[in-house]
Structures are given as C-alpha cells and as structure tokens.
Amino acid sequence: MISTDVNEPYQPILESYNPRQYSGESSKRDFSPVLYETFPWLSLNKSSKSFECFPCQKFYPVSKSFLFSNWRKPQKLHKHCKSKSHEAAMKKWINLKINLKQQSSVLSKVHYFHEEEVKKNREYLQIIVETSIFTAVQNIPQRINAELKLLHCHHSHWKELEKTLKMLFLIFFPR
Ligand SMILES: [Zn+2]
C-alpha cells in the first residue's frame, strides 16, 4: 500500500521508475525499490522522476536539496546518510512520528471515553423513556379510577354540602 501520509515519504512500488542507459553498459539501469528498506527516507519526486530525502526536504527545505537519480551511484545514498543536516532532519522526523503516535493514542482514548459517555447517556435516557412509558400506561386505569372516584366524591360532597346549606338556611332564615 502506498502511503499518502504527509509525514511519510512517497515510496511506490513500480515496474519502472526512470530507466537510464549508461555509457559502456548494454542494458538500462533503473531505481530498485529494495533501496527503500535500507534508506527509508527515500521519497519519489514524480515530476523529476528522481528521489529526494523526505526528512531533509520536510525540515530543511531551504538547504541544498538532496537528489538521487544516478542509479549507477548508490554510494551517494550512504554519503547522504552521514551528513550532519540529514542526521538532524532524521531526529526531527523520528520525534514527529513519536509525537503523532502518542497523539493518536491519546485521541483514541478520548474517543473511547466519549463513546462510553454517549453509550451511558443513551442507556440512561432509554431507562427514563421506558419508565415514563410504563408509568403512563400503568397510570391510565389508575387515573380513570381516580377520576371516577373524584366524580363520585364530588357528588357525595355535593349532597353533604346541599344538606348543610339547607340546615344553615333554616337556621338563618327560619320560617
Ligand atoms: Zn536527508
């Protein structure tokens, strides 16, 4: 799989990169992707069909950029590895990768906790909803009963009240 990560070099596995005919040689030479293993910083520049150093390009873009396109001289790669600026760029790249890894692990933890929180809230809400529905359903006959009782109550109260009023009327307004 080819990485499209902005923090990783572009290292496609191709049948052909940039075959070149060198004087005194019968067949053409090309870049070999086997070199990616020894030099993980190699990054293909599609437009120039040559390879550059990913960390040097990323962290020191103003410095004289390293280019590898002479397939007959892989020693150039070893030489570049020993340069001070390359060592510094490699350190920065490694640190960046470590930081990114830590960040992604923190983010995944945050994401996990958030998911748990959402799950808990959803469960809680579900309980509330279910309980409310249950209570509402349960309450229907109870409410009907209660209202019927209340009607009855009012009715008997009215009778009592009527009696009391009649008595009071007789007391205050005797015939
Ligand atoms: Zn470099």
Describe what is shown at a glance.
The chain is mainly alpha-helical and 175 residues long. The protein contains four helices and three strands, in the order H-E-E-H-E-H-H. It binds zinc ion.
Shape: rod-shaped
Q: Could you estimate the helical fraction of the residues in percent?
A: 55-70%
Secondary-structure element string: HEEHEHH
- Measured distance between first and last alpha carbons: 112 Å
* Rg, nearest Å: 43 Å
What is bound: which ligands?
zinc ion
**How much strand content do the residues show?**
5-15%
* Total beta strands: 3
Unreliable spans are none
Whole-number mean pLDDT: 82
Indicate the structural class. mainly alpha
The side-by-side strand order for the widest beta sheet comes to 1-2-3
Largest sheet: 3 strands, antiparallel
SS element count, helices:
4
Write up this protein.
- With 175 residues, the chain is mainly alpha-helical.
- The chain has a domain at 1-82.
- The protein has helices at residues 35-38, 54-59, 75-81, 84-172; strands at 42-45, 50-53, 67-68.
- Strands 1-2-3 form a 3-stranded antiparallel sheet.
- Zinc ion binds at residues 41, 53, 55-56, 66, 80, 86, 89.
What's the arrangement of secondary structure elements?
Blueprint: H1 35-38, E1 42-45, E2 50-53, H2 54-59, E3 67-68, H3 75-81, H4 84-172
Antiparallel strand pairs: 1-2, 2-3
Bound molecules: zinc ion.
